[in-house]
Amino acid sequence: MRSLQDTKFAILELAPVRDDQSVQFSLHHALELARHAEQLGYDRLWLAEHHNMDGIASSATAVLLGYLLANTQKIKLGSGGIMLPNHAPLVVAEQFGTLATLYPNRIELGLGRAPGTDQVTMRALRRGRQETEDQFPQDVLEILHYFKDAEPQQRIVATPGQGTHVPVWLLGSSLFSAQLAAKLGLPYSFASHFAPRMLAQAIQLYRDNFEPSEYLERPYVSMGVPTVVADTDQEAEFLATSAYQRVLGLMRGQSLKLKAPVKSMDGLWSPAEKMSVDSFYAMAQIGSKATVKAGLENLLAKYDVDEFIFTCDIYDTEKRLYNFDLLMQMKLDT
């Protein structure tokens, strides 16, 4: 069985906005986390694209990546992901090609096929465009083409972008992207940090159908894992109430700003809502270092993934950074 030491550790950052702080504070904290992750030895940190959500500040993903790249030294940074139906493939290729030209071998492009927002905002994002999710495979192929060396007489050349060979990942929470990633021979990251239901089926489908490519010789799988790690199980359970309130807000169509932890969720959610939050966080690892280490080892035994990509919705920024300290200690102590 794969050990934690043999498993890559990464971070998925949504630049969470606290209810008592500004968006600017969140963006600066994203850089603080990137620097911290680099110092700790994390393999990569990705930003997620979401729109019209008051608690998530990473909507202009490529712009924020430029800020992080300019102020870090070596950690790989990327998108987890760019929601491709919202964008013209050429524009995405030029944005990430620019980043790759400025910061060689440090930028990665994870692509998703969902809008990352509600229907009204989706229409605002796609104004004047007719693209739908059904075009996703063709759009992925187009982006891959823009990153390759230019062909003779190629009419549209991504500048910058052409010849940068930016690594491309496919992301998903269903079987569609797993099948496409297998067909194209691309690495695959499953969004089990919020939609874990089809994780095992998607991974199996991807591995069974994987076709080696110029990008990858064998299947490579990453899975999202929400984490709240603290010195004791009791403290972690207390800190996790911020994450529970955030998901509750999502389910109710309310604010997604991070709220301070509470002593008990009793009275804040109904039994049905608690079940929904528990389902949302089915892969979450909450507890002390020993508790979470055992939980991660169980996930490895069950899914045998190549990489964990961790999310964390802890309210206190220092405790949030400490969460990632404790996770890396588990890997190094193995």
TrEMBL record:
It comes from the Bacteria. Residues 14-246 form the Luciferase-like domain. To bacterial alkanal monooxygenase alpha and beta chains. NCBIfam families: oxido_grp_1. PANTHER family: LUCIFERASE-LIKE MONOOXYGENASE. This is LLM class flavin-dependent oxidoreductase. The lineage of its organism: Bacteria, Pseudomonadati, Pseudomonadota, Gammaproteobacteria, Moraxellales.
